[in-house]
Specification:
Elements lengths: L1 E3 L1 H6 L1 H4 L7 H7 L2 E3 L5 E4 L10 E3 L19 E3 L19 E3 L7 E2 L10 E3 L12 E2 L1 H6 L6 E3 L19 E3 L8 H8 L7 E3 L11 H8 L5 E2 L2 E2 L2 H28 L36
Parallel strand pairs: 1-3, 2-4, 4-5, 5-6, 6-8, 7-9, 8-10, 10-11, 11-12, 12-13
Antiparallel strand pairs: 13-14
Length: about 300
């Protein structure tokens, strides 16, 4: 089993050439970037001497658990895509982490990120899920990321609804390509809560085939610049917004006219509560009683 340790770093030619007269412990303390992608690494050992580590590249390995990173208080970028990770664990100490790459793993539930208050990018695309499974995002984690997350990638994860994502009000870039999104009304509702959204890609979802799919999303997302790889013309957006406003105004006018045309029965219920019988009431003898205004005085 290949384990990432300081001994493995010492054996690395790339890192050995950078020593330049420093003792190895001194070199480890000055180390800010660590490149160990595609090295068949299965586990992370004790790297606590690398106290100033800011960027860690561990993609394309065989890692199953995120561990032994509690020392990395200064870590801002963590690249662990294309491993065998099943759970997101042991990241609570990474208070400065801003970009987290976990695509291509075996994660089924996105959780354990509640302490990452500075996380701006989260990449979770292409999880290797069992047949019938879909990627779930824990509402607690979503709420904790609501004020910081700007970029979210959940491509190709069998996702069929986005309702819980409405809290991510700072999102600017959103990608959910090749999922199972189908409810147009739900998407409009969720996206109406994302006022900062600039770029979005939903290609490959059933909802893309709905009538006026593109027009409806453009009117909801007021700042959107690119939808499904195509730029949005500002004149087109303004036309659609005006058209929608005109349509809604016409609907309100029609509803108002219908309300005005409805004339309620002019008499109160008192006529039916023992204070006389309604005008035109037919008695059992067949005679119709005519209403006399003087009788009501």
């Amino acid at each position: 089993m290949v384990r990432l340790t300081v001994e493995l770093i010492a054996k690395s030619r790339n890192h050995f050439k950078k020593k330049r007269g420093l003792s190895f412990p001194e070199y480890l303390r000055t180390l800010t970037h660590l490149h160990f992608s595609n090295k068949n690494i299965e586990d992370i050992g004790d790297l606590s001497m690398c106290r100033n580590l800011t960027v860690l590249y561990l993609y394309d390995n065989q890692i199953t658990n995120i561990c032994n990173l509690g020392f990395a208080f200064n870590l801002t970028h963590l690249y662990m895509q294309n491993n065998n990770i099943t759970h997101i664990d042991n990241l609570s100490n990474l208070q400065r982490l801003s970009k987290l790459y976990l695509g291509g793993n075996r994660i089924t539930v996105v959780e354990g990120l509640e302490q990452l208050k500075e996380l701006t990018e989260l990449h979770l695309e292409n999880q290797r899920l069992a047949p019938g499974e879909k990627l779930l995002l824990d509402p607690r984690t979503l709420c904790s990321l609501a004020k910081s997350l700007c970029v979210l990638n959940i491509n190709n994860n069998n996702i069929d609804e986005l309702r819980d994502l409405a809290v991510l009000k700072e999102l600017q870039h959103f990608s959910a390509v090749d999922n199972k999104l189908h409810n147009m009304e739900e998407l409009e509702d969720v996206f109406s809560h994302w006022p900062q959204l600039l770029q979005m890609d939903l290609g490959g979802n059933p909802v893309c085939k709905k009538p006026k799919y593109r027009d409806r999303l453009i009117t909801v997302c007021k700042k959107l610049e690119i939808l499904d790889g195509r730029e949005i013309n500002e004149l087109t957006r303004q036309f659609l917004i005006n058209w929608k406003a005109s349509k809604e105004a016409k609907k309100k006018r029609n509803k108002h006219m219908m309300t005005r045309q409805f004339i309620p029965y002019p008499f109160t219920n008192d006529l039916n509560m023992g204070h006389g019988e309604p005008p035109g009431h037919t008695h059992s003898d067949g005679n119709v009683q005519r209403w006399n205004p003087q009788q009501s005085l």
